[in-house]
Amino acid sequence: MATEIGVIGGSGLYDLGEIEDARDVKVETPFGPVTLVTGIFAGREVSFVSRHGRGHRVGPARIPVRESIYALKHVGVRQVISISAVGSLRAGMAPGHLVVPDQIVDWTRGARPPSFFDDGLVVHVSMADPYCPDLRSALITAARGTVDRTVHDGGSYICIEGPQFSTRAESQIYRALGMDIIGMTAMPEARLAREAELCYACLALVTDYDCWHNEDEPVSADLVTARMAENVSAAKQVLANLVQILPDTYGCSCGEALATALITDRATVPGVIRDRLNLLVGKYFSH
């Protein structure tokens, strides 16, 4: 059975729980090793990776994102669902609501490797629409058909560096910029998924009102943890429903994202780079 579906679990979601024939799969990538948990979930083979590690040991700026995305690609995954705890910047997106964002603003500070590619092979992928429209649509359908919660179709996710939460002034700035939800992990995850030509969508679980909402208590780690625990069951239900309705193929262009993105003259790309990144670009050097 092929593993075509990947799940990245965020704060509070460190495993899928009811996964049959679960096995650890260690993948050696050009960027370092990573371990996936692969097994049967809701009748289909799924590969799962815990973003922060078991026990939540890895901070947002130290998440091995390149390793995880590469490993999912390596085992055959073509569709990736990211689960994230987020704060709300809008009164209408209340704690307990689910959001399937359609845009991201990257407010990180450059400490996170943003690409699989650097010197020797320059690649510029389109990020105009950072989430796969087909996978987003399926995720919204699955969420609305599964849980008795408000599900928001669309929203702009601002990704901050962290690990500290925002100041009140920052929170108000993000609101003024038109942002809807805030978190620390959407980037470079979305960028790397696009470079790996994977369909990628996010199920954002609202845990708090950040700190702009003066009538609510300021966000804290304890608050996020408590509310995320309440959301985990809903997230697993949505995932189980989603996995059952996902088609094998989509009409989107995610799987060809690099077709017009390689700007370097291919004849000048060193063989060592082609070999190192063959999983990602090999098909574009085969003729």
Please characterize this protein's 3D structure.
With 287 residues, this protein is α/β, with parallel strands linked by helices. The chain has a single domain, classed as Nucleoside phosphorylase domain (Rossmann fold), CATH 3.40.50. 26% of the residues lie in helices and 25% in strands. The protein has seven helices and eleven strands. Strands 1, 2, 3, 4, 5, 6, 7, 8, 9, 10 and 11 form an eleven-stranded mixed sheet that branches. Helix 2 packs across helix 5. The radius of gyration is 18 Å and the shape is globular. The chain starts with a strand and ends in a 6-residue tail after the last helix.
Concise summary:
By secondary structure, the protein is of the alpha/beta class. It contains seven helices and eleven strands.
SSE blueprint:
Elements: E1 5-9, E2 20-29, E3 32-41, E4 44-50, H1 65-74, E5 79-88, E6 98-100, E7 103-107, H2 133-144, E8 151-153, E9 156-160, H3 168-176, E10 181-183, H4 186-195, E11 199-208, H5 221-245, H6 271-276, H7 278-281
Parallel strand pairs: 1-4, 1-5, 5-11, 6-8, 7-9, 9-10
Antiparallel strand pairs: 2-3, 3-4, 5-10, 6-11
Helix pairs in contact: 2-5
For the largest beta-sheet, the strand count, sense and barrel status come to: 11 strands, mixed
Distance between the termini: 30 Å
- Count of helix runs: 7
Which descriptor suits the 3D outline?
globular
The CATH superfamily bears the name Nucleoside phosphorylase domain
At CATH level 3, the topology is Rossmann fold
For the residues shown, what is the average pLDDT? Answer: 91
**Strand coverage percent:** 15-25%
* Radius of gyration, in angstroms, nearest whole number: 18 Å
Q: Name the helicity range.
A: 25-40%
Structural category: alpha/beta
CATH class: Alpha Beta
What is the CATH architecture descriptor?
3-Layer(aba) Sandwich
Secondary-structure element pattern, one letter each = EEEEHEEEHEEHEHEHHH
Low-pLDDT sequence parts: none
Number of domains: 1
Extended strand count:
11
